[in-house]
Amino acid sequence: MFDFVGHGKKFLLISGVFLLISILALFAFGLKLGIDFKGGSILQVAYPKERPANAEIVSQLNSLDLGEINVQSTGTSSVILRFSEVSEDVHQQILDNLGNVQQERYESVGPIIGREASRKAKYAIILSLIAIVLYVTWAFRKLSRVLKKGESWRYGIGATIALAHDVLILLGFFAILGYFKGVEINVYFVTAILTVLGYSVNDTIVIYDRIRENFLLHRSKDMIGTINLSLNETITRSLNTSLTTIFVLLTIYLFGGVAIQNFILAMMVGIITGTWSSIAIASQFLLFKRK
Amino acid sequence: MNRNKVWTTFVLIIVFTLLALLVDIPQLPNWVPGYQWFSKHKVHLGLDLQGGTQLIYRTDTSDIPAGQKVSAVDGARDVIERRVNIFGVNESIIQTARLENEWNLIIELPGIEDVHSAVNMIGETPILEFKEQAPPHELSQSEKDAIAEYNQQAQERAQDILEKTLALDADFSLLAQEYSEDPGSKSAGGDLGWFSKGMMIPEFEKVVFEDLIVGQITSELLNTDIGYHIIKKTDEKIDEETGEITEVMASHILIITQSEEMIRQNGKWQYTGLTGKQLKSALVTFDPQTGEAEVSLEFNKEGAKLFGEITGRNINKPVAIFLDNYPLSIPVVREKIISGQAVISGSFKLDEAKELARRLSAGALPVPIQLIGQQNIGPSLGKISVDKSVIAGLLGFLLVTIFMIGFYKWRGVLAIMALSIYALIVLALYKLIPVTLTLAGVAGFIISLGMAVDANILIFERIKDERRLGKPLPVAIDDGFRHAWTAIRDGNITTLIVCFILYQFGSGLVRGFGLTLGIGVLLSMLTAIIVTRTFLRITTK
Predict the structure, then answer these.
(1) What is the ipTM metric for this complex?
(2) More confident residue, B135 or B473
(3) What pLDDT does residue B269 have?
(4) Which of A109, A129, A160 is at the close of a domain?
(5) Chain A: residue nearest B466 by CA?
């Protein structure tokens, strides 16, 4: 039997280092918001033969006064242009100026929609966290009867701290990706965060469920022993589930097309941290201020 | 549970699976009974998968009273829907979405590549509103000051002109043409024609009938409610019996002043509820007197009733017809009109009248709209995404199969069978509900597949545990299920909570993800506890 609780301090240290890096990255780089949140335009066009140099594309658009234009190559002969939000007429002029190109994708988001999207995203994440604390506390209410009053809140809060850990690391990871690789945060990313919340709490609950069962079964007052036993009993399941999900995600990441690659990457990171945090944070929190 | 029940469940599972399979297969051969019904259901692909255009319009409802905003926005949606249908876009979706105190219209046009023509097609829709005068409001001090200042300047201007008219070589009619602000007489050199007593403002009348002699110009400005007048009496008719002046001919130069009453009334047009929404048809007609082209409007029943009420309460008052936010025509109501017909006479050229009637006939919007966002995805990009997701999904499934069979042996085979049944039923549901599949939705489905695997793994791990305790296999299976159930339930319910929140708060894309994941999670619970369990029971004696 592996002594999870004995190694608890080491686990916390590892999580602490990752958290620190994430928080520093968030403060230093910030998240690179995509047009979904800040408004703007994305235009993807395909050239019939070879695509011209980026500088040449920018100079073709100079006369339109688009502000900063970001040009990025994609596929064999396509480019993605990012610029400020423009009217439909300007959009048509851009296509005219670019010459013989085929528009593959165009998105233009006004600042109002962007503001609304980020408001909704925050709302959804916070509401999910609250709902999860409440549900977990309710689901583990029996423990309050066996142990002492208010015990089930410990589970609700423990699950939420683990979730906050996952979300922070995910945000930090994308802050770093945004800074070095220009990866932007879009609505998909928020969806990924919310899914990770669901997944991670699922993982935590499976472990908590076993701890609850072992408590009720043995009526044991040996906290550390019960938690260790439960973690050992559930570790195979935790790893197997994470692995199968990561298999599926990895295939989508490799073969599923560029459009959702970052979304899938966010999920993979979240599932790894979710599995980790259930063991390293959520379970250890049950012993917090009790040893 | 006895063996009979287990077999009954097994048969039911097979029946459901076959039904799902029939729905899933895109085109069934003719000999399958009910093949038409089964093949009728198609997978609905979102814009990102099949290509197309999404347009987001903001509606401007600032003029509309709080209680009527929703119905005005709904009216706009109906008009655009009609318009889009005229242009033959299949499966277009038009939704309204509330955004704090504003409403947006989200228009999805699958298969429309040419955004420009789509935008034009919708942008061409005229905005038609009938407005009445707002009740007078009290003026603020600054408004009063502004009036006083304007009138002061008007007086100075008028005084200058008066001095010019009194100059020796002055031509009154030329000055009137240049300076007068009376649109009715300005071009005629200020000439008002013949008029008798009682036709003019009393102060004006007194000056021309009593003070002035023919050919004389007022030496001082005359101030009336309308403004400052400089008057020249040009002729008179005298009753020979009484010696009284019966008719006078005069010219004037008018410099308009503002009155508080005017400012209170002017420019305040308010929403009446009568808009393009209630318009039934529009035709070009001609004014029988002048022969000018006009546009005749016919309202539907609701519009006719409203129009009757509006004209009824505005007799002798103006009602403005606003087209595209511009008061096109401001006729004064003579009588209550209950026929539900109105005429826009705006001194049109025939072409203009024809064009307007055509645009109005295709539907007129009850509120102004503004394009604030758009998304366009080429069909090739969508096709690539579909192909890639299918390949990725199959590959992922293959990997899971290998893993499950490698790790759990024969039970893994059962789990994969249960998962396949799960996938078939979910896909059938997507077609039947129908769920619009987007890339995010596909991801939601694949993740729910992962959750379904998880439920199976949980169960198998528990069965192993029970076996270790020395229980015989059938008992271990039942106990394993019972013990795994609480974890599966609690884990899935929290995911369902998240799905619900995604569905409630998300935009179209996030909604689709929440829906597919939610359906997946619910069904994965069902398949794990019914299908996997039944299979395990049947294969163990």
Answers:
(1) 0.80
(2) B473
(3) 77
(4) A109
(5) A233
- Average pLDDT along chain A: 85
CB B435 within 8 A of CB B429: yes
- CATH number (domain holding residue B252): 3.10.50.40
Say yes or no: B22 and B40 in one domain.
Answer: yes
Helices (H), ranges, chain A = 8-28, 35-38, 54-61, 88-98, 111-139, 141-146, 151-181, 187-218, 223-255, 261-277, 283-285
Contact flag B373-A113 (C-beta cutoff 8 Å): yes
| Contact (CB, 8 A) for B375 and B108 | no
Any B CB within 8 A of A173 CB = no
Is B495 within 8 Å of A199 when comparing Cβ atoms? yes
Query: What order of strands is seen across the sheet that includes strand B269-275?
Result: B269-275, B128-133, B319-323, B326-329
Does B346 have pLDDT greater than 80?
no
Question: Is A74 near chain B, with CB under 8 Å?
Answer: no
Give φ, ψ of B347 to 5 degrees. Answer: 40, 65
**Which has more pLDDT, B212 or A16?**
A16
- In terms of residue numbers, what domain contains A167? 8-35+112-285
CATH at A225: 1.20.1640.10
Write phi, then psi, for B397 (nearest 5 degrees).
-65, -40
Reported as a single tens digit per residue, the pLDDT across A36-58 is 888 888 888 888 888 888 888 88
Residue of A nearest to B376 (CA): A106
Domain co-membership, A166 together with A89: no
- B-chain CB neighbours of A206 within 8 Å are 458, 487, 491
Asked if B390 reaches chain A (Cβ–Cβ under 8 Å), the answer is no
Last residue in a domain, options A109, A129, A151: A109
B contact residues 8-67, partner A, Cβ 8 Å cutoff: 48, 56, 58
pLDDT digits (tens, 9 = 90+) for B237-250: 888 888 788 888 88
Could you give the residue ranges of the DSSP H alpha helices within B90-237? 115-123, 141-166, 172-179, 202-206
Q: Would residue A199 count as lying in a domain?
A: yes
Q: Which domain, by its residues, includes B446?
A: 3-46+378-539
The distance of A289 to chain B (nearest Cα, Å) reads: 27
Whether residue B327 has a cis bond before it, omega within 30° of 0 = no
Query: A34 vs chain B: nearest CA distance in angstroms?
Result: 14
Question: Tokens in use for B378?
Answer: 């080429």
Answer for the pair B227, B256: CB distance below 8 angstroms, yes or no. Answer: yes
A2, part of any domain: no
CATH number at residue B430: 1.20.1640.10
CA-nearest residue to B398 within chain A is: A248
Tell me the mean pLDDT in the region B406-413.
Answer: 87
Place of tokens 């409403």: B103
- For residue A146, the model assigns a pLDDT of 66
pLDDT digits (tens, 9 = 90+) for B297-317: 888 888 888 888 888 888 888
CA–CA distance, A172 with B511 (Å, rounded to integer): 26
Among the three residues B231, B263, B295, which one is the final residue of a domain in this structure? B263
Best of A94, A118, A202, A216 to substitute, by most chain B Cβ atoms within 10 angstroms, is A202
Mean of the per-residue pLDDT values of chain B: 81
Closest to B510 measured CA to CA, from A35, A128, A269, A192: A192
pLDDT at A14 over 80: yes
Asked if B505's CB is within 8 angstroms of A127's CB, the reply is: yes
- Decide if A290 is inside a domain: no
For residues B259 and B276, membership in a common domain is answered with: no
CB atoms within 10 A of CB B350: 11
Query: B97 CB contacts (<8 Å, ≥6 apart)?
Result: B103, B104, B105, B106, B507
Chain Cα centroid distance, residue B343: 26
Size of interface A-B (CB pairs under 8 A): 214
